[in-house]
Amino acid sequence: MSFIRTLKGDIKPEELGFTYSHEHIVCRPAYWAERGADDLLLDDKEKSKLDVLDFKNHGGRSIVDATAIDYGRDVQAVKEISDELDIHIVGTAGFNKSFLWDAKIKEELKPIIGNYNTYAEWIDAASINELTDIVIREVEEGLEGTPFKAGQVKFGTGYNRITPLEEKTLRAVARAHHETKAPMHSHTEAGTMGLEQIELLKSEGVDLSYMSFGHMDRNPDPYYHEQIAKTGAFLSFDGIAKIKYAPESTRIACILELVKKGYEDQILVSGDTARKTYYKHYDYGLGLEYIIAKWVPRFIDDANSQGFDGEKLIRKFFIDNPARCFAFKK
After folding, report:
1. Residue 5: which H helix or E strand, with range?
2. What is the average pLDDT value for the chain, to the nearest integer?
3. What pLDDT is recorded for position 160?
4. What is the pLDDT of residue 154?
5. Is the confidence at residue 100, as pLDDT, over 60?
6. Which residues contact 203 (CB under 8 A, 6 or more apart)?
7. How many CA atoms lie within 13 A of 245 on its CB side?
8. Beta-ladder partners of 188
9. Measured between alpha carbons, how far is 156 from 98 in angstroms, rounded to an integer?
10. Edge-to-edge strand order for the sheet containing 328-329?
11. Spatial separation of the C-alpha atoms in residues 118 and 132, rounded to whole Å
12. In this structure, are strands 267-269 and 234-237 parallel, antiparallel, or unpaired?
């Protein structure tokens, strides 16, 4: 029997509905706070809630909040948004990438990671098994000591490199996955190192059909995408609306190229909306409503004009594929 674990509890996969597969809702990353980077602090629950409400009002049902322990999670605030709007939110256990571990540890994390001065010191000092146990607890008991459990486990690597600390957390997350059967997600900086991550995951015996690889549209290389898709993993095109990286035509072309090759059941779409300037109710950005209200119709029109069934593909990317990707398969 498979299920999806949300902050409100476990649900049947068919209850997930229209889903954004990679977002951030309320978070205060210590790394950015210490540097005065206010744009990267989603620090107002009520403003975040208004954007989530926009998403719901357009038919959205679920959001995967990909905020890991080292990115300033506010688990309580996100759970309150879930309850107040009656929307499913999937929380995330695990880690991001190593540059964030240079930040000073937040006071509330001390019960988990002790008195180390930096995340890097903590990861370096801890054994893989100790890190694995922390991830398992967040899936089976609750995030950061709350009763609200994680529904996926995450690791990350930097741009064109995997540091020893990143490899350590990857292995810890892989082992936590084996214990919990939680779905796995990876941060790939600018879409790089996916194939190298795969080799490490294979060495840990991971079935790659449990994996989703983030930020694939940051590296718009159809050959690279196909090599990842061949493993059975999901590919997350989660930079929608970020024109500074590429026009939407590039993202859509990459997605449709995978569809042509038979991988339409492995595609996820989201926005990774992690700045105030991306949010409508913080700083007048396009907001969480943009994908469901504006991008989806554009994709359908574009896909149909190229001979595809755009509406069928949208159902796969936002409903059917997330229901399989984020399921625990006990």
Report:
1. strand 2-6
2. 94
3. 96
4. 98
5. no
6. none
7. 18
8. 157
9. 8
10. 9-11, 2-6, 328-329
11. 19
12. parallel
C-alpha to C-alpha distance for 70 and 61, rounded to whole angstroms: 27
Alpha carbon of residue 235 to chain centroid: 11
The two structure tokens encoding residue 216: 């694939």
pLDDT category of residue 103 using cuts at 50, 70 and 90: low
CA-to-CA distance for 303 and 285, rounded, in angstroms? 26
What tokens appear for 91 in the block?
Answer: 């929380």
pLDDT at 289 over 80: yes
The size of the chain, in residues, is 330
Residue 99: its pLDDT value, please?
53
pLDDT tops 70 at residue 105: no
* Cβ contacts of 319 within 8 Å, gap of 6 or more: 16, 17, 18, 19
CATH class, domain 2-329, is: alpha beta
Distance of CA 57 to the CA centre of its chain: 22
Extract the tokens encoding 233: 């993993």
Q: What is the pLDDT, as a whole number, of residue 1?
A: 79
d(CA 246, CA 155) in angstroms, rounded, equals: 25
How far apart are alpha carbons 207 and 97 in whole angstroms? Answer: 22
Residue 265, pLDDT above cutoff 70: yes
Which runs of consecutive H residues, i.e. helices, occur in the chain? Answer: 30-34, 45-57, 75-85, 110-113, 119-125, 128-140, 164-180, 194-203, 222-229, 248-260, 280-283, 289-290, 296-305, 310-315, 321-325
* CA dist., res. 178 & res. 188, Å (int): 21
Instruction: For residue 253, give the 3-state DSSP assignment.
Output: helix
Distance between terminal CA atoms of the chain?
6
Nearest to 173 by CA among 229, 121, 143, 134: 134
User: For the whole model, what pTM was predicted?
Assistant: 0.96
The tens digit of pLDDT for each residue in 189-212 reads 999 999 999 999 999 999 999 999
